[in-house]
Amino acid sequence: MFSDVVALYRLAGRPALQGHRFSYQGPITPELSAIIERCKQLSSDFGHFDDGPDVESDEVDFTWALAANDSGRFYRSFDEFLTDCESIHRGDFPSNFYLLDSDFLSNCGEGHEQPPELGRLQSLCEMIQLLKRLSVSGDLAAIPGRPAHLIFVKAASGGLAPETLDLTTRITRQMLYHPALDLGLLKDLLEEDAKGKVRTEEYKALFRLGVADVLATKSDIEGRFSALVQRWPKVLERFAYDVECVVNKLSFDGILRDIAEAELNLFGKLNGLVVDNATKFLGIPISLAAIAALVSKQSLTQDLLVCLGALIVALVISGVARSSRFQLDSTTNAFDELAKRLSGRAKPDGDVARRIGKFKRAYGRRKRFARRVIIAFHVLGWTPIVLATLVFMASYPPSWLGKLCEGCVLFQAP
Predict the structure, then answer these.
(1) Transmembrane residues, as ranges (predicted)?
(2) Domain span at residue 62?
(3) Are 192 and 257 members of one domain?
(4) CA–CA separation, 271 and 119 (whole Å)
């Protein structure tokens, strides 16, 4: 394990490196002897003994050749680590490394405090990994050791064609001095669980546009990554603004759709009150035609039956008209509740509010028309019986009661 190599170096007294080697000549302790035996068993990926170990009496002499790969490397300082570690510029933070100046071993689990620069560097590596997944191209770098090469596209605007923007992700020390990067939002967009969520791809496209707008401010490809790190908070602000615009547009379209559906539904019900019930009021002209029979004075019995029929028709029409009024009140209550909810979702002085106001006025006109028609039918329904009563009283003045008792077959004495 790489930790055994670091333990060997520490027990050797942390000698100065000679190229990629360190040497030790001095007393051997049981702990040092055990570490030497473990290092003999290590793979050459972690390094090897270039000379020795030669044990004579209570002393040991050896030279250890360090590995020159990402399985485990020694760096004299953080600056050397930032310069020589190629993987970090592709977003791959190494798991095994050792910083000599701060005596820091990665993944050691010891009580050694991590240099603050490493935490910020890890955040930059995570940012590069996320940008790889966000970009339209992925990593185009074909040569090992090169920084990631990503492609973003700035949307066409102002008559200008879309612009393709290259981004190379080489990390510099100056980037570590910027405020901590907030990557939580981008991670949420790119996580596997987000793929099935509504509008995730649309939100990804909005984030790409925000990144592309920042990259477009720099003509120098090498300087674009630094500008992106510096202006990352602006990217998040732009994304939040774009998402709010999308949500507002969806809300606007949703309200207009709700208004259109309400117009079809509620206006249809109002029309139904008039059109569907019109056939039920056809008894009015029939009753009026029957009144003509009263004028001819055919017989008292027939005239009474005509009046009774007109009364029955009037009662039926009255019931239908009353039921229509109840239906109109129910429809109006439903409209008032809907209008209240729609108004609560709209800005008082916006286009939606004006559209809702127009909807309310149109419903008010139709409601008044339907109410007047119902009242007219109700009045007309009682017109035949009123006319029949007047004609009957004119045909049979008050003395008709005695004649009725004497001459009517239906009321003859036994």
Answers:
(1) 303-321, 373-394
(2) 2-68
(3) no
(4) 70
